[in-house]
């Protein structure tokens, strides 16, 4: 078979391992091509035959060696036709799409229209892909966010200040929730849970009065500031940490600082968990292809590797809910 591999959307720690381990397995029996820059590379025919030896030196680094883009191949029908034409002319029997909800959603749409055989692997630091417990990159990003927060906490303790850490995550609060829990923040703000900023300031002041410092973790997605949207309709987020810190300082009269690590938590080397998750996903994707099982996304559910129909992922987003929301409430209660 002729197999193409692409990575799309925001980069994430563990992508290179996923690509490398898939190529290592697939090159035994198949021709493997990398498609550079995600779906854009399939529209522009940026495709090259690859061997695992080309990838081995980069396999354990963050980022994605085969590049990425946020190009939506179904932005209009002209693009969709070009995609179909290129897949045919390049003779690709299957495309392994490694991405978040947008990239996988496009793979699902391509499968639905019969344009290609898709096999999906979920990755994003946001951990918001429907149908899987964990995406590649999430664990590494949370570990990085925890490290940043612990460094920040050291200076909050020394200077007896309030600190606000803003983390990425888009409309899902997974990164903030896990960072807030792992550092036992005094308040954590996530898009899934409405809070009142006066209640947050009151809670933080009480915590400050007890221990002479206080910590708040906030997800970037609790507020949008407008601006341009990408081809999948997402607004650029970020900046609410500064606004919240100013608000808390005014409301409490206590010196407050904000830290926004932004992309720094995304660019780290993959954690051991993400490395093995990437390898497990790549192995399962290879096995699916060997068994002519197409139109599926690999998924991690209750510790087991499984797969779900990739069309199920289209247009869905996994938000903090159920057990995780109850855990949130156990520690931070109602801040409304
Ligand atoms: O989807 C991953 C993510 O890091 C989000 O958490 C964040 O909102 C967005 O990408 C940032 O995108 P960009 O790298 O285009 O600034």
Give structural attributes.
four-stranded parallel beta sheet; 336 residues; 41% helix; 11 helices; 11 strands
Widest beta sheet: strand line-up: 3-2-1-4-5-10-11
Mean pLDDT: 97
Question: How large is the count of helical segments?
Answer: 11
Q: What small molecules are bound in this structure?
A: 6-O-phosphono-beta-D-fructofuranose
The helix/strand class is alpha/beta
Assembly state: single chain
Residue runs with pLDDT of under 50 for 5 or more positions:
none
Distance between the termini: 56 Å
Q: Report the C-alpha radius of gyration, rounded.
A: 21 Å
Into which percentage range does the β-strand content fall?
Answer: 15-25%
Quick one: how many beta strands?
11
Largest sheet entry: 7 strands, mixed
Morphology call: elongated
Fraction of residues in H or I helices:
40-55%
What order do the SSEs take from the amino end to the carboxyl end, as H and E? EHEHEHHEHEHEHEHEHEHEEH
Short overview:
The protein is an alpha/beta fold.
Itemize the secondary structure elements and their pairings.
Blueprint lengths: L1 E6 L7 H12 L4 E5 L2 H6 L3 E3 L2 H4 L21 H14 L3 E6 L1 H12 L5 E5 L15 H22 L2 E6 L6 H10 L3 E3 L7 H15 L2 E6 L20 H13 L3 E4 L12 H19 L5 E6 L2 E6 L12 H11 L4
Parallel strand pairs: 1-2, 1-4, 4-5, 5-10, 6-8, 6-9, 7-8
Antiparallel strand pairs: 2-3, 10-11
Helix pairs in contact: 1-10, 6-7, 8-9
The protein binds 6-O-phosphono-beta-D-fructofuranose.
